[in-house]
Each structure stands twice: as structure tokens, then as C-alpha cells.
């Protein structure tokens, strides 16, 4: 079993486990998480969320981003300057759409989350631009 510094199991799910978890997804959730789609800007349910908590992967529930790292990028998608744990994000070179970008995926279930860009605020200078539909927010209580 592979564990992150934060203590979470990062063992990749099998294809059968992914399909079992995906059985309850809506067509829109499947399009983003499994088919690498993108939701329209300014329509995501988590864009304006200001509550204190953690954003988890919709498919496998791995914690991905803390509300303390969220900022308003003005792009229309929830944006964060760093992940919950650096091992909780997988980076893939994306050359689709005729440009070079860095796609971010969940390391456990390989779900597409969004992209990361080098134009974020301090301290990291990173902007993780995510699809709300790829996330589940769990409020700290």
C-alpha cells in the first residue's frame, strides 16, 4: 500500500473499482471525470464557496485541496494555489486543443480534475484551475 505524507492510501484503484464507483455518476460527471471534459466557466457549484473545509475527489473521495488554499482567480473555475498534499495530485502533459498544458488528475482513481498554470498567487505561484463537478466539498465542523 502506498501512503501519502498526510496518511492517505494512494494505491491506484483497479478498473473494476473505478467502474463500480462511477456507476452512480451523472452523464456530466462522467464527461469531466472519466472523459476529461470541462464544465463551462462561472457555472460550477463550488466557484463561490467560502466555507472552511476540504475539497475531495468526487469519484474516490481522496482529499485534494483545502479551502485555506482557495482564491478567486477570476477565471470562472474554483482555483487553488497548492494541493492538500503534494502526493494527492498527478500531473500529465496535455497537448490537446493545440496547446501545451499540465492536466491534474487524482492519483488514486485517475479522474480528470482540471489543469495547473504557473500564474497563481504567492507562496507557490501556481493556479490549480478545477472543475466543480469533479469535487465534493466537506465542511470542517
Automatic annotation (TrEMBL):
Cofactors demanded by this protein: Zn(2+)
Origin: domain of life: Bacteria
InterPro entries in the record: Met_Sox_Rdtase_MsrB, Met_Sox_Rdtase_MsrB_dom, Mss4-like_sf
Residues reported to bind Zn(2+): 57, 60, 106, 109
Active site: 129 (nucleophile)
Keywords, sorted A to Z: Metal-binding, Oxidoreductase, Zinc
Molecular function, one GO term: peptide-methionine (R)-S-oxide reductase activity
Enzyme Commission number, as recorded: 1.8.4.12
Homology family: Belongs to the MsrB Met sulfoxide reductase family.
Matching HAMAP family: MsrB
Protein name: Peptide methionine sulfoxide reductase MsrB
Amino acid at each position: 500500500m502506498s501512503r501519502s505524507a498526510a496518511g492517505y492510501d494512494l494505491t491506484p484503484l483497479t478498473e473494476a473499482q473505478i467502474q463500480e464507483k462511477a456507476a452512480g455518476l451523472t452523464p456530466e460527471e462522467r464527461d469531466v471525470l472519466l472523459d476529461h471534459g470541462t464544465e463551462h466557466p462561472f457555472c460550477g457549484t463550488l466557484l463561490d464557496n467560502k466555507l472552511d473545509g476540504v475539497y475531495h475527489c468526487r469519484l474516490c473521495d481522496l482529499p485534494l485541496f483545502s479551502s485555506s488554499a482557495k482564491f478567486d482567480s477570476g477565471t470562472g473555475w474554483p482555483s487553488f494555489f497548492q494541493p492538500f498534499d503534494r502526493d494527492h495530485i498527478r500531473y500529465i502533459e496535455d497537448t490537446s486543443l493545440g496547446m501545451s498544458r499540465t492536466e491534474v488528475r487524482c492519483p488514486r482513481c485517475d479522474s480528470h480534475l482540471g489543469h495547473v498554470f504557473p500564474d497563481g498567487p504567492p507562496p507557490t505561484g501556481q493556479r490549480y484551475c478545477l472543475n466543480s463537478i469533479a469535487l465534493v466539498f466537506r465542511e470542517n465542523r
